[in-house]
């Protein structure tokens, strides 16, 4: 299939090359929560693992990496699209993450950063107590007979005497 010439294709290419920040390249990433941790995966193909730097300053996570291409002497280039470049990405971690236990691995061109959630930020179950908790706490008397409420603010204990339940 033949492509049609349009002046806009050349204009788009020119604008992209002018507006691009020299040296800094895109670092595509995914971020998701899996249980009690966040997982960040960033594509850094062709990067020497020794040039990858992950650090935290306060709540700011910064990822830096650099690709350096070897110098090739005495060659005639036909095309050269790969470039030496730097990659930088910063994320505000917010509250609820354990910055002391962040871990990072680099494997097959993918940087994986594991960010644990603090115990305070983990979901937890809150026990709901019945509104009849005061009556249940009254329970049985020492003689084993049940207490029972006969009217608002009055209690008949197992021995038959009446007492007030209001404080």
Q: Can you characterise this structure?
A:
The longest helix has 13 residues, at 7-19. Residues 135-141 have low confidence and may be disordered. Helices cover 11% and strands 35% of the residues. It is mainly beta. It folds into two domains: 24-70 and 81-121, Sandwich (Immunoglobulin-like); 133-164, no CATH class. It has helices at 7-19, 133-138; strands at residues 24-25, 29-34, 37-43, 53-57, 60-67, 85-92, 103-107, 110-116, 148-151, 154-156, 162-164. The strands form three sheets. Strands 1-6-5-4 form a four-stranded mixed sheet, with no helix packed on it. The protein has a four-stranded antiparallel sheet with strand order 2-3-8-7, with no helix packed on it. It has a three-stranded antiparallel sheet with strand order 9-10-11, with no helix packed on it.
In brief, what are we looking at here?
Helices cover 11% and strands 35% of the residues.
Helix content: 10-25%
User: Distance between the terminal alpha carbons, to the nearest Å?
Assistant: 90 Å
Portion in strands: 25-35%
Q: What is the level-2 CATH architecture name of the largest domain?
A: Sandwich
Q: What average pLDDT do the residues reach? A: 76
As an assembly, this protein is single chain
Pattern of helices and strands: HEEEEEEEEHEEE
Main CATH class of the largest domain: Mainly Beta
Q: Strand arrangement, largest sheet? A: 1-6-5-4
Query: According to CATH, what is the topology of the largest domain?
Result: Immunoglobulin-like
Return Rg in Å.
34 Å
Q: Mind describing the biggest β-sheet?
A: 4 strands, mixed
Helical segment count = 2
Q: Structural class, from secondary structure content?
A: mainly beta
Low-confidence stretches: 135-141
- Apparent shape: elongated
Number of beta-strand segments: 11
